[in-house]
Structures are given as C-alpha cells and as structure tokens.
Amino acid sequence: MSSALIETLDAQSNERPTVLQMKRRHFNPDVAPNKRESLEWMRINAERERIFRFKTIAKDTASQYYTILERFT
Fold first, then answer.
1. 42, 26 in Cβ contact below 8 A?
2. DSSP 3-state assignment of 72?
3. Fewer beta carbons within 10 Å, N or C terminal of the chain?
4. Where is 43: in which H helix or E strand?
5. Strand, helix or coil for residue 4
6. pLDDT value of position 60
7. Which pLDDT belongs to residue 33?
8. Quick one: pLDDT at residue 35?
9. Within a 10 A sphere around the Cβ of 46, how many other Cβ atoms?
10. DSSP label at 3?
11. Is the pTM of this model over 0.90?
C-alpha cells in the first residue's frame, strides 16, 4: 500500500499538465509591479496548491490504511 501511495504521489507531482494548469490559475500580472515578481508569485502559489494536494492524498490514504488496520486487529 505504501508503494502505491508513493507511486500515486510521484505521478501527481510530476504531472506536467496539472502543474501548468495550477500555474495558469495562479498567474495574475496585477499582483506585482513587474513581470518577474508576478511569475515568482505564480510559482509560489502553484507550489502551495501542489503541497496541499499532496498533503490531502497522504492524509486520506493514511486514514484509510489505519481504518483497515483497526478492523483486522
């Protein structure tokens, strides 16, 4: 089960279209006075979203694992 979790999380973190969608969603040129700073904010916010998704998957999978473990012990 842990190897399946690692594979799922790895696939999700390396999934290029999803990353591009997150960056597109967080791109707002009005946030900062120059484009470089706007791009940096876009990257930071997309990374925050990726980490939140990673955390959610890990938490849900761990919860499911311990629920199954409790039933059989």
1. yes
2. coil
3. C
4. helix 35-71
5. helix
6. 93
7. 83
8. 85
9. 20
10. H
11. no
Calpha distance 65→4 (Å, rounded): 12
- Note down the domain range covering 20: 2-71
Read off φ and ψ for residue 28, nearest 5 degrees. Answer: -140, 100
DSSP string for residues in 13-40: HT-HHHHHHHHHHH--TTSSSSHHHHHH
| Alpha-carbon separation of residue 66 from 60, 70, 73 (angstroms) | 10, 6, 10
The whole-angstrom distance between residue 29's C-alpha and the CA centroid of its chain comes to: 23
Cα 23 from Cα 13, distance rounded (Å): 13
- Which of helix, strand or coil describes residue 71? helix
Residues across the chain: 73
Q: What is the pLDDT along the chain (73 residues), one digit of tens a residue?
A: 778 888 887 877 777 777 778 888 888 878 778 888 888 888 898 999 989 989 999 999 999 999 988 888 7
> CA–CA separation, 54 vs 51, rounded Å?
5
Task: Work out how many domains the chain is built from and give that number.
Answer: 1
